[in-house]
Amino acid sequence: GDSVTQMEGPVTLSEEAFLTINCTYTATGYPSLFWYVQYPGEGLQLLLKATKADDKGSNKGFEATYRKETTSFHLEKGSVQVSDSAVYFCALRVKRGAQKLVFGQGTRLTINP
Amino acid sequence: NAGVTQTPKFQVLKTGQSMTLQCAQDMNHEYMSWYRQDPGMGLRLIHYSVGAGITDQGEVPNGYNVSRSTTEDFPLRLLSAAPSQTSVYFCASSPPVGGGGELFFGEGSRLTVL
What is the pLDDT of residue A10? Predict the structure, then answer.
């Protein structure tokens, strides 16, 4: 079935470091891919998305490129800030069904000043 | 600008008790869903609805019941709570498929079953 695998956390970085959070997926067909972010005590909110191969989603300095050949959607940011500390979820949309999303297990990111 | 509203935010139950988690959205979204979030397991889909009067099971439906009598509301019922249902529950809604697939989440309801 459809699934999403994220890199194990937690991840701890210093401010201004480069960030990569790996995400790979297994899906039938060509799903849409998403990154969601969950700040402490809040619900999830959409960070960025890509709907077809080679699309690049970007928002708030974060980027991710939909790579069909490697079935990946890695999240990157060139210079992280303390305010980026959160849990990040990679997800795919099962197009053939309803608006269901399949989520990865989440990666907790902590940025130290 | 309410979006998706969940109540209660926190609840403690004893094993065997029943309760209802409320979810309401004011965006006229057709699609609504319930997820549970457990450490190391991400979010797992419990039940979902594609419109009023239509519901279906997700990945982990056992022990939960839902109904969708209006577009706005999608309550989740725990019929006989068990410690395995200790979790954080999120309600989410989405516009029709052509809307891009984004889910809008509530702030979550933390449930503890003793």
Answer: 93
Pair of tokens at residue B96: 């029709």
pLDDT at residue B99 above 70?
no
Question: For residue range A71-89, what is the model confidence (pLDDT) as tens digits?
Answer: 999 999 999 999 999 999 9
Contacts of B50 in chain A (CB under 8 A): 98-99
**Chain A residues near residue B101 by CB distance under 8 angstroms:** 32, 34, 49, 51, 93, 99, 101
Instruction: Report the alpha-carbon distance of residue A68 to residue A30 in Å, rounded.
Output: 8
Residues B64/B103/A100/B77 CA torsion (nearest 10 deg):
10
Contact indicator for B15, B73 with CB cutoff of 8 Å? no
Q: Tell me if A89 and B42 make a contact (CB, 8 A cut-off).
A: yes
The whole-angstrom separation of Cα A61 and Cα A76 is 8
pLDDT in tens, B72-87: 999 999 999 999 999 9
Contact A44 B33 (CB under 8 A): no
Cis peptide before A31 (omega within 30 of 0): no
For residue B100, pLDDT beyond 90: no
- Tokens 């619900």 correspond to what residue? A43
